[in-house]
Design a protein that fits this description.
Strand 3 (69-72), helix 3 (75-88) and strand 4 form a beta-alpha-beta unit. The chain has a six-stranded parallel beta sheet with strand order 4-3-1-2-9-10, with helices on both faces. A four-stranded parallel beta sheet has the order 6-5-7-8, sandwiched between helices. 44% of the residues lie in helices and 15% in strands. The chain is globular, with a radius of gyration of 18 Å. The chain has two domains: 7-95 and 211-284, Rossmann fold, CATH 3.40.50.1860; 97-208, 3-Layer(aba) Sandwich (Rossmann fold), CATH 3.40.50. With 285 residues, the protein is α/β, with parallel strands linked by helices. The structure holds D-glutamic acid (DGL). D-glutamic acid binds next to helix 3.
Length: 285
């Protein structure tokens, strides 16, 4: 595999662009092929089997685009599908959960950490598991915030309704006197400004995307896949529905010109065989 090949990044929708932003900052030479599964968002209230099936379909699409490595820019898919995908792929793949847990464990001083995410991520207990592996004394308070995703997808960022919803979900975590809050869904950093105003200065907001981009760089280096050639890559964005809405919203998060210049293409999985057992992703060894 050549180091000039693109990297694949995927999410259930727009949220993964928060990870794209960090990847662009720390790996400016890398060409990104992004897939947002906007037709099937949200993943956060679906079963593990469904999320694994969707993730496999997207990975197959990315492999057809000849990516050299993959970032799962979705906490839900990282929590439920990373292990399955890792065992099936010949190329490196990373999720956002482990890097996010690592960053939170480094930040906390009082060993009380809040984790917010989709129902699937919180119910999986995966953040607690990783945090306890790092430090068994850490108390973890999880809270599913399912309404945050549609608010972000709708573009309601600085909005009274959004602020009320933030209060409704997070006041109980603030009362637990946590000093770190993991934004355990890639949509949530888009609300970080509003969340921070409500949780206050004593609580550090941890964005797993930042740590993930750092670890992804090591992964590329380890595998001799880091692109050293100085270039301005032409990123490609794909969605399963609503390209215009995606382009407008993604553009506002990533910066003028980045998304529109490349055109957002639509790939529809509807006519594909969705039986997970039929996917022929090469196994290692
Ligand atoms: N962005 C996804 C995540 O990080 C969740 C959104 C969804 O429910 O699909 O978990």
């Amino acid at each position: 595999m050549s180091s000039s090949a693109p990297i694949g990044v995927f999410d259930s929708g727009i949220g993964g662009t928060t990870v794209v932003k960090e990847l662009m900052a720390s790996l400016p030479n890398e060409k990104i092929i992004y897939f947002g599964d906007t037709a099937r968002v949200p993943y956060g209230n679906k079963s593990a089997g469904t999320v694994i099936m969707y993730s496999r379909q997207i990975v197959r699409f990315l492999l057809e685009k000849k990516v050299k490595a993959i970032v799962i820019a979705c906490n839900t898919a990282s929590a439920l599908a990373l292990d399955a995908l890792k065992s099936e792929l010949e190329i490196p793949i990373i999720g956002v959960v482990k890097p996010g847990a690592k960053a939170a464990a480094e930040v906390t001083k009082c060993n009380k950490i809040g984790v917010i995410g989709t129902r699937a991520t919180i119910n999986s207990g995966i953040y607690k598991e990783f945090l306890h592996k790092t430090n068994p004394d850490i108390q973890v308070f999880g809270k599913a915030c399912p309404l945050f995703v549609p608010l972000v997808e709708e573009g309601w960022i600085s909005d009274d309704i959004t602020r009320q919803v933030i209060h409704r979900y997070l006041d109980e975590l603030v009362e637990k006197e946590i000093d770190a809050l993991v934004l355990g869904c890639t949509h949530y950093p888009i609300l970080a400004g509003e969340i921070g105003k409500i949780t206050g200065e004593g609580i550090t907001l941890v964005n797993p995307a930042f740590e993930c981009a750092k670890e992804f760089r090591y992964l590329l280096e380890e595998n001799d896949l880091l692109c050293e050639e100085e270039r301005i890559p032409e990123h490609e964005f794909y969605v399963s529905d609503g390209p215009k809405a995606f382009a407008e919203l993604a553009e506002s998060f990533l910066g003028e010109g980045i998304v529109k210049r490349t055109n957002v293409a639509v790939h529809n999985f509807e006519n594909e065989d969705s039986d997970i057992k039929t996917y022929q992703i090469k196994r290692r060894g």
